[in-house]
Amino acid sequence: MTQDGPPNPDASDRRVAELEAEVEELRRALARRDAVRSADRAAARRKGGRAPDDAPRAGRGAAAPAYQADLAEAAAEMATLRRIARELEESRAALREREARLRLILDSATDFAIFTTDLDLRVTSWNEGARRLLGWEEGAILGRSAALIFTPEDRAAGVPERERAQALETGRAEDERWHLRADGSRFWGSGLVMPLRDPAAAPDAPPLGLLQIMRDLTGRRRAEEALRESEEHLRHIVELSPQILWTADREGNITAVGGRARQLSGIAGEEMLGEGWARIVHPDELPRLFEAKARALATGEPLDVEYRFRLADGSYRWMRSRAYPRRDASGRIVGWYGTTEDIHDRRVAEARLAALVELGDRLRELGDPAAIAQAAAEVIGRGLEAARAGYGTVDPEERLIRIERDWTRGTAASFAGEHRLTDYWAGFVEELRRGEVVAIGDTARDPRTASSAAGFAAVGVRACVHVPVTREGRVVALLYVHDAAPRRWTEEEVDFVRGVAERAWAATERAQAEERRALLLAELNHRVKNTLAVVQALALQTARSAPDLPSFVAAFQTRLIALARAHDLLTQADWRGATAEEMVRTELGGEERADLGGCASSAVLPPVQALALALALHELATNAAKHGALSTPEGRVSVACRTDPADGATLIEWVERGGPAVSGPPIRHGFGLRLLQRGLARQAGMEAELRFEPEGLRCTLRLPVLANAAGRARRPRP
Length: 718
Known about the structure:
receptor, alpha+beta, Beta-Lactamase, photoreceptor activity
């Protein structure tokens, strides 16, 4: 219970005061009259006379009018006194009843401590609420200082005196602070102090004392502290949350936004209220965003939309905003609660994963390495939003990169063609050989490329990523990404580039393997046909010259063995050819009487000529064993190999000595001579010059340089 001023006395209060004043006045008047009469009697006695009231009693009423008047006056005064006494008692009874009623009212206000003090703060009254709240019985606290209910620190700071001074100066003093109970415990109390004044007194009269009213608000205080703590906790959660928390009114206008929005956008939260948030959304996204907002407001369904959000540095990141309606008891929407989260990394990862899947699908259908490189460049360029991307093969010396096609965005020029790696970066090759991704955020500032910044700038490169593809410690391919402005490459972006490079190289290897397989099948088919043709010719010619089947089998078998040895040698060399020396030693290495020291040519014969030479050497050795130098123990054969400086042809010279004397060319030409003079010439272009000298046969085999599909141009073997 609180009041704006001291209580006003009622009519009974005023009547008691008036009656007491009248009684006092009558008493003073009677006292004055008695004093006058006593003085008159004393004076009369001194003169020897009789006082006015000394007349005989029997005759007073008739003989003394003055006496009768006094008697009547006294009777009237007594009646007045009795009346006044009666009214006084009635007024006092009414006052006691009023005080009891007021006391009952005050004691019934048990939630409020109501007490009064004098101006020195000594307690003069104490209600039941004060006893219950503060713990002191009325008898124990009356006359003691009200400062007892203040904490020691407040007493030391003079708080009770300040409140008294404020109440006397302004008419009231209010406060909320910790107070003490009789048992020393503390409670949070709300207090009001007002001066007690007599309404009948002069305005400048000092107050009679102080009225103090206090209420225990400890529960509310603790609830407020808990609420503040909860709000502080919630505020920290909101501020530290990676999401942007916001609210909107029923029309969708933003009414509050979390501090995270300012951290990301650099724009104060109040500037985003209403529809101010639109300034941080990518212009291309606004129509779709407004459409989603209008749909949510019209249907009451939750909002869920993704869009690009502008950061403080001007770049954009993908965000997802979701909002749910807040409804009243009737179900009517009264506002919206919303959150905005950064989904850029997730969205980019999903886009890159989709790009890799797309690349895999496209690469499965491509067999051309150039088309594979183009597809890889396009996927990686779009995935990273770069200016240029490409994929090229690196030569064995790792100095040149050959790019058939690349991908560019906007005005960026194509980088297709052949480039020397060291033209842009002196240590480029060495860096790539480590097999690690080379990511340069700023070619002008990176110490590895600063000296070559002009070269990079000339081709529009300010940031780049290079991913080498290595096989057996050698760089075989390179995937590059270029940007025209400095850029910080993230680990995820580098991993994405690496993944594309590996897929592109795998697809390229697959395409090359398929190409090699097709070529191998074609070449195998060609070789098998050629071999079968040779075998067929050998069989036919051997059959024509053999007198019987056993002779045919023996001759045909030896020729097949010679052909097989040549095939073995060529297979060991991946069918790339063999040197004349290798063929000579393969066919004649087991013959002790053959001098092969003069055959040291390193010129490589293509497979077709190597086979022809093997068959020719076999026929020469067979004829020598039957009819020539090797038919006698003293006979010898020497073979020399050299290259004709005029046209590069390989010359094999066969010389027989120590055998039977030769009278001239044979009358009948067998299969061996026909093969040397005609058959091998048609097949391999080999020319055979036979000279039947008396000392023995001299044969010069000439193998010209071939440059056709059947036999590649010869070059020295490394």
